[in-house]
């Protein structure tokens, strides 16, 4: 199969127009149309629906689009592996880190460690990744992600890293563990319902026949810290994230008990394609940092 045709097909789908894709690729439109016709003849399927507004992939076209991305990703990895063979790992690595998690706490140490140990690796850290994680990893837009949950999830494999208890973070004055039932009237600042922490907290309240008193939804970790520090409400975070706040603010951090509420954190990679050499290096380095973090709980 001619990978140039696959690349051209991806550009056509992304552009939504053969004319626009031809401009992007700097080739004549008839030549691009000929490549598309050759692909359709090869697969025996119509791949695009043409209209006055442009083109859109058929069901067969969408299937080819997904596989073409994977194929080209593998070709790029093969070229990179051959090019750096025998040398220190080099290339781009993309890592997604769940907000309000230990992953976010390790973002700066990870960046520092990669710079020191693998200076030829360009590390991309995304703490606000959206969309479907499995799709981002399967298509190669993200090499790995440190997220809440333990799977299963189609297209990716979960490597459990740790389980963390959740803590109430609020104004100083009260210490010690706090029972869940005592939080019923506490004004809480939480992330929106798309976040696992919010879902776990609400599930725990529901099982106890209680309702959390949510007074604000905050997506920014920095704003959340400032709001709690200003006395606008309390929040609920895992210990690793709470520790970062302890280092900066005068707040009370109390473990939630009766029942204890926990979240699971996993390192997620594709189950269909292996990590590149630089991605594998970052993967192992990240696990080293997790181990070091656990040895220094405070």
Describe this structure in words.
By secondary structure, the chain is α/β, with parallel strands linked by helices. The chain contains 11 helices and 12 strands. The strands form 3 sheets. Strands 3, 4, 5, 6, 7, 10, 11 and 12 form an 8-stranded mixed sheet that branches. It has a two-stranded antiparallel sheet with strand order 1-2. The longest helix has 25 residues, at 59-83. The protein is elongated. The termini are far apart. The relative contact order is 0.15.
For the structure shown, list the relevant keywords.
44% helix, elongated, 8-stranded mixed β-sheet, alpha/beta
Name the structural class: alpha/beta
How many E strands?
Answer: 12
Return Rg in Å.
24 Å
Shape: elongated
Task: Produce a short descriptive summary.
The protein is α/β, with parallel strands linked by helices and 298 residues long. It is built from eleven helices and twelve strands.
Q: What is the fold's blueprint, element by element?
A:
Layout: H1 3-15, H2 18-25, H3 29-43, E1 48-51, E2 54-57, H4 59-83, E3 91-97, H5 102-105, H6 107-117, E4 121-126, H7 133-138, E5 144-148, E6 156-170, E7 178-179, E8 187-190, H8 196-207, E9 213-217, H9 221-229, E10 235-238, H10 239-248, E11 252-257, E12 262-270, H11 277-295
Parallel strand pairs: 3-4, 3-5, 7-11, 8-9
Antiparallel strand pairs: 1-2, 5-12, 6-10, 6-11, 6-12
Helix pairs in contact: 1-2, 1-3, 1-4, 6-11
């Amino acid at each position: 199969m001619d990978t140039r045709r696959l690349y051209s097909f991806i550009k056509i789908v992304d552009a939504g127009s053969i004319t626009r894709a031809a401009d992007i690729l700097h080739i004549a439109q008839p030549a691009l149309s000929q490549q598309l016709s050759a692909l359709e003849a090869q697969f025996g399927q119509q791949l695009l629906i043409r209209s006055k507004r442009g083109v859109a992939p058929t069901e067969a076209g969408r299937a080819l689009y997904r596989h073409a991305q994977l194929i080209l990703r593998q070709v790029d990895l093969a070229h990179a592996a051959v090019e750096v063979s025998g040398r220190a790992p080099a290339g781009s690595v993309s890592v997604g880190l769940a907000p309000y998690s230990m992953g976010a706490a390790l973002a700066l140490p990870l960046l520092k460690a990669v710079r020191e140990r693998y200076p030829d690796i360009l590390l991309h850290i995304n703490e606000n990744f959206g969309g479907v994680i499995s799709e981002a990893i399967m298509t190669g837009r993200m090499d790995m992600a440190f997220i809440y949950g333990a799977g299963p999830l189609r297209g990716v494999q979960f490597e459990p890293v740790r389980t963390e208890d959740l803590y109430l973070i609020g104004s100083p004055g009260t210490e010690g563990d706090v029972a869940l039932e005592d939080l019923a009237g506490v004004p809480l600042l939480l992330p929106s319902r798309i976040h696992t922490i919010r879902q776990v907290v609400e599930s725990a309240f529901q099982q106890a026949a209680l309702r959390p008193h949510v007074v604000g939804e905050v997506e920014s970790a920095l704003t959340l810290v400032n709001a709690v520090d200003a006395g606008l409400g309390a929040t609920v975070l895992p210990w690793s994230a709470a520790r970062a706040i302890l280092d900066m603010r005068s707040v009370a951090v109390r473990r939630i008990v009766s029942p204890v509420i926990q979240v699971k954190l996993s390192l997620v990679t594709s189950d269909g394609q292996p990590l590149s050499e630089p991605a594998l290096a970052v993967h192992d380095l990240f696990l080293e940092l997790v181990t070091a973090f656990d040895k220094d709980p405070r």
